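Comment thread on ticket #2218

A.B. wrote:
> Attaching the input chain for the structure job we discussed in standup.
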Amino acid sequence: MRTTIAPMKMPRSIILAALLAGCAQVYGCVFIQTSSISGKTGPGNPISASASDLGYLHLIAPQGLTQTAQANLLSNCATGRVSGVTTELTMRDFLIVQSYNVSVTGTCS
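C.D. wrote:
> Ran it. Output below, let me know if you need it in another format.
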C-alpha cells in the first residue's frame, strides 16, 4: 500500500501578510523631525553637511550623530563662523534596523 501526502496549501491571508511585510521592510517608513537651532540667517554663503548611522530595534540609537554633522558643517566654512544653523533628523525604519540621517544647513560668514 502506498501512502501519498497532499501538498500543504497556504491560506491567502498568510501569503498577503508575508508580501506586505516584505514590502514594508524593503521600502521602510520615514519619520522626519526638524529643529531650528537659530532662526536668523545672515549674509554669507549657504553651506550644508550631513552624517548618518544605523540603530537597532529602536533601543540602540547612534551616538554623536548631531555633533558629527555639525563638525562636518564647520569644516565647510573657512572662517569657522556659521549662523542660521538648522538641523533635520530623518529616520527610516526597516522593521528591526533604523537608518538615521542628520542634515545640517547654515550660512558661512
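A.B. wrote:
> Thanks. Noting for the ticket: Residues 28-108 form one domain.
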